[in-house]
Amino acid sequence: MTSSYKEKKVIGIGIVHELTGLSERKIRYYEERELIFPARTAKGTRKYSFSDVEMLMEIASMREEGVQTTEIKQDMNKAQKRKIRDHMRRGQLNAQFNMRK
Length: 101
Description:
Blueprint: H1 13-20, H2 24-32, E1 39-40, E2 46-47, H3 50-64, H4 69-96
């Protein structure tokens, strides 16, 4: 199963800076706040996906509106829990009705 091109961690921080307009320092700060999770090469270079770039744009937009990073993280956690819960429900329904994707 191949992952979507949007999920592949192939973009360096310099390109992310150019795409988003965010400083490299701010991008690293959002990583420190656990709002994004870049991959690391063997030498420690950060690699981002297109999904990460989209998330950074959303974060920047929310920050411009005055939303604090702690609030953003809480919202992200809620969304992730909802996604997991929905996935589990689909699995239970599929098992109950012997359905497959």
